[in-house]
Design a protein that fits this description.
Number of helices: 17
CATH class of the largest domain: Alpha Beta
Distance between the termini: 16 Å
CATH superfamily of the largest domain: Zn peptidases
Structural class: alpha/beta
CATH topology of the largest domain: Aminopeptidase
Largest sheet: 9 strands, mixed
Strand content: 5-15%
Strand order of the largest sheet: 1-2-4-3-7-11-8-10-9
Number of strands: 15
Number of domains: 2
Length: 452
Amino acid sequence: MDLKHIAADVPDYREFLTVDDLNASSHRLLEQYPDLVSIREVGSTRNGDPIELLTIAGGEDSAFVFGGPHPNEPIGCMTIEYLSKRLCEDEQLRAELGYTWHFIKSIDADGMRLNEGWFKGPFTPSNYARHFYRPARQEQVEWTFPINYKGLRFDDPLPETRALMQVIDETKPKLLYSLHNAGFGGVYYYVSDPCPALYEAFHQIPEWFGLALDLGEPELSFAEPYAPAVYRMLTSNDMYDHLERHGVADPGAVIGFKASSAQYAERYGSFFLIVEMPYFDEPRVNDQSLTATIRRDAILSAMDIAVEHDDWIRGLHSTVESDLLLDSPVRRALEDFLIMSAGFRAADREWVMAADETKRPASQAELFSNLYTSRFYKLLNTGLLARMLRAEIESGNASAAIQSASAAAEARLAADGEALESALNYRAIPIRSLVGVQCCAGLATAAYLNSN
């Protein structure tokens, strides 16, 4: 399999396809390859849209790939758009890999429609934040699988999650590829099991597209690295244990998440892969040169920034809470964030003060993660607040408190976005590069699994 040749063939996509675009493309593929492609409904979204499984016939082993596990993550939808066409066109590739491939292009289509405001650009952190939507934890398809672990019990999955469970049960996939993506930084991976034979490919593939590995702070402090930028897949069990170790009395209430697709597929021995791709990058995301700042101080600075920002949102929200009229997904997302924001903070602060690995000088990448990447993600929460208040006004809510809070939220969104963008030497990464890395990493993993 010539991965570099496949990488070179990825189209130069200029924008992200909408849910309707993706569905139409799947049916065109069925018309072109009726002997190879099949489409069937495996469920419905909460809003009643059909959830369609696109299957490309092949060998006995199954690979199940799904996009949009969080609806602000359309890179994977584009990866499936390219990969499904490539597999249909390339008989040699299908034969060499030996899989039957199953795809769901956008598993949370309802939520993805709420993100389509930024799909056509301009691709800036500010515009992304203005149109950003990521569901409340209890509405996240990827994190509402059944679980029974210590004090964390749940067995009422969302309709979209039930569709994923059905496909996993039916296909028992050798490879389960959940196409997540991050927002800012570099490329990093989660895998269910150690796979040393893949680490070199995982490190080289981003280079083909001019992308950097993310060698700054991990997404969560307790992430276990297998190799640089390659981590063991985090589970809700890990989150629970981390909080329990650091004195949280009821970890299940703090987590809010249930099990993930990776945990559900463990019963079939599925190898699980995530390739986290950013929309924006910056030269410092993999700079390993050391700074004069102690890593602990950098992490504490990021925590202080988060506390100030979260308290500001919480305070502004409190001035309008009694005047809010809409029970919208955006409002539920914001209010869940307000509940969640302090949940891990006490445990993480205890960890950072006790851990020996935080006593050394921070690398430039780690300093960048703490001082800038963290500000990017806080900008998204400001965007949620501004969007919630904008929707109230557009629906006819004439409350003076709503009007005032909306003006304040819009002003901070604009000011923080401008300040962040002016402090960074960032770029919007070409979509073809993002698709190429996810596609090639997935194919490399599929080939690895068939050789073991």
